[in-house]
Amino acid sequence: MKTASFKSLSNLCFVLGFASILGSIIIWFMAGGSAPESMAHAERFGIFVGLWAPTFLILSNRLDRYAARGA
Question: Which of 3, 38, 51, 64 counts the most CB atoms within 10 A of its CB?
């Protein structure tokens, strides 16, 4: 892969990391209903989506290093 491709993927992963955080918050507040089961599901699903953020941010960092190295 070219250095520009790694840099583009790095930027995409960085944006997806923050989108995951925002999506998690939105899911948590919007998907909940009035029933306790519905509220619990929304909380668990929001946490699940929020757990993607570290993965995307780590991938962004790693791809940025590859781009800087000129791999």
Answer: 64
